[in-house]
What we know:
The protein has helices at residues 4-16, 47-65, 74-77, 85-91, 114-140, 151-158; strands at residues 22-28, 32-34, 70-72, 96-102. By secondary structure, it is an alpha/beta fold. It has a four-stranded mixed β-sheet with strand order 1-4-2-3, with helices on both faces. α2 packs across α5 (114-140). The longest helix is centred in the last third of the chain and has 27 residues, at 114-140. The chain is globular and about 40 Å long. The termini are close together. It comes from Pundamilia nyererei. Its cofactor is Zn(2+). This is Carboxypeptidase O-like.
Amino acid sequence: MSELETRAVTDFVRSRKDSFLCFLSIHSYGQMLLIPYGHPNYTAPNYDELMMVGQGATEAIWKVHRTNYTVGTPPDVLYPITGSATDWARMQGIPLTYIIELRDNGTYRFELPEDQIQPTCEEAYRGVLYIITYAHDKTFNGAVANTAVTLSGILLAAGVTGATLR
């Protein structure tokens, strides 16, 4: 919690952790949906569910512009990582936590061409909607509920995407 913004988000999540259905951290780049944990010796207790929902989200993403995303833990599809916000959120008891690594696959790295920004947003929207819908339906059995789905907006506004939670 080295940054004020990170501390603010941490305090916010901790004070309401039982109310969160999912936790998403959006980054660029890599076209991946990463699930906990970043350490190769630890597996999330709901690994199978995280993978199933992740596969559904990547299929939803693919249907928009036929862009392939890979699902898995960081050690399995990228490399081991430490201090991720999603690992921390999963350890807080939030069941569905994902890092979404947006386009591209490395050609442009962090400087995505302007003509790919809108398609990337459209894809990400469908993937996020899939995860949120799953979390909602699992929790409320399809009943109409007033749920907060702006966490990713809060995280982005707070600048958490590049910070480390400890």
